[in-house]
Automatic annotation (TrEMBL):
Its main location: membrane. The chain crosses the membrane at residues 37-56, 68-90, 110-135, 156-177, 183-212. Gene3D superfamilies: 1.20.120.1760. NCBIfam families: pgsA. This is CDP-diacylglycerol--glycerol-3-phosphate 3-phosphatidyltransferase.
């Protein structure tokens, strides 16, 4: 066998090895971003339990209601921080896995939706606000899946980021439900959750019109070819 053939075989072998490594890394579960995501999911029952105990009127729970609220609030803050941290680490180290791509957005939705439902049960959030925020999450997920399936790229607007920012600030304040040093968590939290409500509706409309415009452009391009 000639040296050229040997070199070609070596190159093919190296290419196949790299492909196998990329495939394995894509399906890897045990990495730091995924561990943080799993940890975030594990914190959700803690938040749910502490808020659920606030529903009871018995003296033992009523006396510790403020403490339970703060436990839920700080746990929510910790869970939200892991969301930022796992994304930062994944981008920094260029880690993209099937497991992370699946679990990370679901973990965020589980965290927010379960918190909102329990806050509504405590009469700290208007029921219509909760319904709209939850339906909006389901609606946007369906739209993004449709866009992905059809290979359509729609630019993400900043309104959604504002919605998330206000929401993540409002929820722990509504969980704590206290007035430390005269600062009213209930009042500020309520204002922030209504701002989140406004931006959630607005961002969903903007994304919907953007996707509809993109679909129209694709259809017109196909008609022009015919």
């Amino acid at each position: 066998m000639s040296d050229n053939n040997k070199n070609n075989d070596n190159k093919k072998s190296a290419t196949n090895t790299m492909t196998d490594r990329e495939l394995l890394s894509e399906w890897e579960i045990d990495n730091l971003p995924n561990r943080l995501t799993i940890f975030r999911v594990a914190l959700i029952p803690v938040i749910c339990l502490t808020l659920y105990l606030c529903l009871f009127e018995e003296n033992i729970f009523k006396a510790t209601q403020k403490t339970l609220g703060y436990i839920a609030a700080w746990t929510f803050v910790a869970a939200s921080f892991t969301d930022f941290l796992d994304g930062y680490i994944a981008r920094k180290r260029n880690i993209v896995t099937v497991f992370g791509s699946f679990l990370d957005p679901i973990a965020d939705k589980f965290l927010v939706v379960s918190s909102l439902i329990l806050l509504q049960s405590l009469n700290r959030v208007n029921v219509l606000v909760v319904i709209v925020l939850v339906i909006r999450e389901m609606y946007m997920t369906a739209l993004r899946l449709l866009a992905m399936e059809k290979g359509l790229k729609v630019s993400v607007n900043q309104l959604g980021k504002w919605k998330t920012t206000f929401q993540m600030m409002a929820i722990p304040m509504l969980m704590a439900w206290d007035k430390p040093f005269g600062f009213s968590f209930p009042l500020v939290g309520t204002i922030l959750i209504y701002l989140s409500f406004f931006f959630s509706v607005l961002s969903a409309l903007v994304y919907t019109f953007g996707l509809a415009k993109r679909i129209t452009e694709v259809r017109q391009a196909k008609k022009a070819k015919v």
